[in-house]
Amino acid sequence: MGRVPDLAGTIIATHAGARGSMHQKAADGHACGHSFELPRLGILLRQAAPRFVEGVIAPVAVFYAAFALWGLNGGLVAAVGWVYGGLAWRYARGHGVPGMLLLAAVGVTVRAGLAAATHSPVLYFLQPTLGTLMVSGSFLVSVPLRRPLAQKIATDLVPMPEAFLRHVRVRRFFSRVSLLWASVFLANAALSLWMLFSQSIAVFLWVRTSLVAALGAVAVAVSVWGFRRCAGRVNAEPATA
User: Fold this and answer.
1) Where are the transmembrane segments (predicted)?
2) What are phi and psi of 11, to 5 degrees?
3) Single pTM value for the model
4) How far is CA 109 from the centre of its chain?
5) CA-CA distance, 198 to 220, in Å (whole number)?
């Protein structure tokens, strides 16, 4: 519940288990000019599913169960406990704790404290929603600057040949996908704000989570399909010397 663009974090994390094969494919791509092949969708989905449950579904269930049993303060304690429990679990398994995750935990603690002090759950959910709006703006602004954020995220996580990234079709694809995700996060924020101020917490949690997940799933499907189509066309072209 505490990670700001939770859907984005889930999507980005899908690369984890397939990273080794991606490095090999990138190396092959350098040898073959502008060719590049994305790992199979099944591999990505198997990596995404546990992280989606951990980062989106479980926090909502934990907060709402505690909220229903013990009220707002109980829900806030459970939400904070979930975040710190995740940190402790990673530390105990020797995975290390990224600095950004520590900052997120601090942010959740501050938000929960403010919500408890004011007895207003709106304050707890407002900050992630505003964060989602800022993410939308970042994707949008990156396009006219010719530094599409979708490409930045993709190349940070998945090594791709420079020749592939310089191809006009690839540049056009990442610009369009950046606009797509700007729209997705804008719709996410607008829906969240409307429901936050007009609906009950239960409706906000479950309906908003379901709609945002469905919207994100459609965007992911469109993005993957578009990338495969783009890569297929680029790979079909003869490599330039």
Assistant:
1) 61-84, 96-116, 122-143, 179-197, 203-227
2) -65, -45
3) 0.70
4) 21
5) 29
* Terminal alpha carbon distance of the chain: 50
Tokens coding 106: 């601090």
In angstroms, rounded to a whole number, what is the distance separating the alpha carbons of residues 170 and 234? Answer: 8
11 found inside a domain: yes
CA dist 150 and 139 (Å) reads 7
Is 24 within a domain? yes
**Max Cα separation, the chain?**
68
Sign, CA torsion 210/211/212/218? positive
Q: Is 32 helix (H, G, I), strand (E, B) or coil?
A: coil
CB atoms within 10 A of CB 16: 13
The tens digit of pLDDT for each residue in 114-142 reads 888 888 888 888 888 888 899 899 999 99
Q: Check if the beta carbon of residue 160 is closer than 8 Å to that of residue 154.
A: yes
Q: Which residue has the tokens 């469905």?
A: 214
Tokens of residue 155, six digits: 């190349």
Give the separation between CA 130 and CA 230, rounded to whole angstroms.
33
What's the structural domain count of the chain?
Answer: 1
Q: Are 170 and 164 in contact (CB under 8 A)?
A: yes
Structure tokens at 62: 């934990």
d(CA 160, CA 22): 8
Domain assignment of residue 84, yes or no: yes
